[in-house]
Amino acid sequence: FVFFKSKTKKTLPPGPPSLPIIGNLLLLRGLGIDLEPTLSKLHKKYGPVLTLRLGRRPSIFVTTRAVAHRALVQQGAAFADRPPAAPASAVFSSRQHNISSAPYGPIWRVLRRNLISETLAPARVKAFTPARQWAVQTLIDALHERALEGPVCVIEAMRFAVFSLLLSMCFGERFGDEVVKKAETAQRRLLLNFSKFTIFALFPRIGKFIFRKRWQEVHDIKHQQEAALLPLIHAAAERRRKGQTGFFSYADSLALLELPDCRKLSDEEMVSLCSEFLNGGSDTTSTTLQWVMANLVKHPHVQAKLYKEIEQEGGVDEEKLQKMPYLKAVVTEALRLHPPGHFVLPHTVTEDSTLDGFVIPKGASVNFMVREMGVDPEAWEEPLEFRPERFLGGGEVDLTGSKEIRMMPFGVGRRICPGMGLAMMHLQYFVGHLVKEFEWKRVEGEEVDLSEKVEFTVVMKNPLRVLLIPRACSEN
Ligand code: HEM
């Protein structure tokens, strides 16, 4: 073998030798979670910052909490950039004109500030209380109906309810099942196929020709998304034109927004931004919701303790969530053990930088091992145990990681998830209601299987199947 040599090799973080052209691609048995065990092994050999060759640019991975803190918090501005978009991502993000993929600069700042102040500010979130009540009730009704027939596979109903809620926040209306289904199908097709499109990142020039059908699928999905979302964007515009007041939605805020070059967003950009809002906000949340409930089935004593807290508070109104520390601890513990993303979105540096004595070149992809940090035995006693109590009585954790990172399911630093507060609230709200309404019980003869599978997020390989006993019945 002739090993790959580059001018910067001496100063880049260390890593395994790589082959010409294909670099370290042989380490990837499929992209995604398979990389994790490999990285854990490499971490032991090469230390907490390491380099792989997975494409034209070096891919740098940070495996420990302390180094992540030095990069994302102490050198926050330097590490806040995003690498150039891979070909498929460029199509879906309208050439990096959405929040998650925009370079660290004026467009990103305007788009992110708009989301935070116009949709995620507490008063705006409060305005959607009726949408949340309706979404959770729809989920409960669906589960009651299915529970009559025996064990229930719950993930689809969860996904539908969370997606309906985000769709309402995005477009300011409550939609019928058909509209929700059409938008959900388009968005889900993107999520399920996304890893397949990574091939275009690895072979950006020739990939489109070799995998012509797959490249066509990128455009088919984009058209399907536009067919589902554009009518909703136009309906919101029509309501504004007629002066009809309703909920001030995310789409409304985008339509009024002016970009730094004094222009408005195009329809294509609006679709990308709404799509980011819908997928960023719903898939992560419904995936986590299923992980929480699976752990509550596996640990009935935790569920009983949580139900007691709910009873003591007399229900799960939004105002009461603040007074329910155990509910918050249960959700946080699930996010520690089962973060929906085991990595964050790829970062890069704004200019050539150094980290722990190594060069981090501009354009290199830099990522962080979120799940590995959440189960670091130096930060957590019995890290693999589901024990929400660890977050009680002074054990609360600051998820922004500003002083120290203990876990980072939402990322930390300048690119921290702007939806963190909303996501925590939605999770507590849904979990609280689901436990108040039903006793969640293991199906006789079946174990709850916590094996993982990478879709877009890391989901349960075998979706949760449970017995749902309405509390009214279980108390008789
Ligand atoms: C359990 C739920 C959620 C989890 C675990 C989660 C996690 C994350 C993570 C890990 C990142 C990347 C951080 C980085 O690159 O360093 C991120 C970014 C982002 N998330 Fe979330 N998220 C959740 C819910 C939401 C919600 C509800 C919304 C919006 C309604 C949202 C919108 C975004 C956006 C726009 C970004 C890009 C931020 C940027 O690049 O500046 N997420 N999220």
From TrEMBL:
Tree of life domain: Eukaryota
MF terms in GO: heme binding; iron ion binding; oxidoreductase activity, acting on paired donors, with incorporation or reduction of molecular oxygen, NAD(P)H as one donor, and incorporation of one atom of oxygen
Entry keyword Lipoprotein: no
Named cofactor requirement(s): heme
Membrane topology annotation: Single-pass membrane protein
Chain residues that bind heme: 417
Keywords: Heme, Iron, Membrane, Metal-binding, Monooxygenase, Oxidoreductase, Signal, Transmembrane, Transmembrane helix
Family: Belongs to the cytochrome P450 family.
Name by which UniProt lists this protein: Cytochrome P450
Organismal lineage: Eukaryota, Viridiplantae, Streptophyta, Embryophyta, Tracheophyta
